[in-house]
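Batch job 17 of 40 flagged for manual review because the log was empty.
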Amino acid sequence: MSVTEENPSYDLVVVGCGVAGLSAAVAAAEDGARVAVLERAPREDRGGQSRYTEAYLRMKSHTEVTDDFEAMLAENGAPPYLDPDLAGEVARGPTGRAGHARGVALLDPEVVGTFADEAGPSIAWLTRLGVRFDFLPTQFLTKSQPRLLPVGGGAALVEALATRAETLGVTFHYETTGERLLQDDLGRVTGIVARTEEGLRRFHGPVVLAAGGFEGNGEMLTRYLGPRSVYLRPVCKGANYNRGEGIRMALDIGAAASGDFGSYHAEPVDPRSGVAEPSVFIFPYGILVNRDGQRFCDEAPGTVDAWYERVTRRIFEQPEGVAWVVLDARHRRIPNYRLGIRTDKPPIVGETIAELAGAIGLSATALEATVDAYNAACTEGAWKPLELDGLATKGLHPPKSNWATPLTEAPFHAYPIVSSNVFTFGGVKVDSTARVLDASDRPIPGLYAAGETVGMYWGNYTGATSVLKGLVFGRLAGADAARRRSNA
């Protein structure tokens, strides 16, 4: 099939219209490239999950990432039980880059270093596009690291980037889904086959895959996360557009898999709510109980920003993937406590623990016994809700390490909590210019990836790096593609 208006040719074809894809499109177009963006959603829903996030950025200033940035990415960038005797060998790999373990690529230190180095320049670039950044209040009542935020959240990023792209003449193809990559006889990616309302259409040119993870694909979730994935809910409606085609297309032509395909970024949300990200971060100040009315984890092992994901994973393990946080009236004396409750649904209220149990459908006998045992294990000490106070239970299993105060003040409140799937961890491996690598760590010519299509995390998410990853590697992909066009 020849290149025609029905099968147009571009200097770069970007799949996905979140902050990663838009960053790639704008960076390439600013260097004079002719760019197309393919977006599954209609125009009014463009931006995917990026539109709904507050877009926390793990930065201590407008120019510098946090001091632990690279260390935490490295810690969360490898399988937890990698054989120490093999670690050096797989970390080196056949080309000198970070290698592979269990058939999945390890995170390359050079990629991590580039990520850290390019964060500041990416924020400066966005500032020039009109985005404002500030250290605004977050939903974390206690936190270990600062978070820089775009004023207006992810929606502000999407609109600024999309507006700039339109000004530069980027062509947007909405309700268009990438299906298959095109390659020449030497393996170079030369375009993509996409499905539109009229049928299949070819778009010719190098490709950036920035279509997110597979949060909206039930088959892939079951295949990789297992049958219990039915108890996960997307964190926002934008996730329903992320169905894993970008990852699948790259793997189909030999891209290296990277990141933990069996895991995802977990966030505690209220299952009653239909709003985007109805998070419930107040749980460290009460107890978490399952359908049997039993506690099952330490609710407050550390600051909530550093531990909420691990606690949420324990909630996901419970029967039907649900738990309730039980609080007494004391929690309403925490300064700005409502910041930790983003659900639009009211708490379930009872004047007694037995009444609360009945309201949430638990055994009153079981819940009363759990609360009595917890109250008896609480010790005296100063309650300091906005810092780690070490006020811990004694002789209780599982323990509670901070903010352990008796639940005695009526009225008692409860919120149901389930694990949301913010984004999946499995994706493809890239180098420091966002080129997709094959299983031998060689770049696949003409193919880039950015955002959650790139696998970077194992087991635990490095908080406030996801949006930044999309911005940085999207920008790098677009700039590299434009540079190679200019040098051709």
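Reviewer: the log was empty due to a logging misconfiguration, but the result itself is present. The CA atoms of residues 138 and 168 lie 34 Å apart. Unflagging and moving on to job 18.
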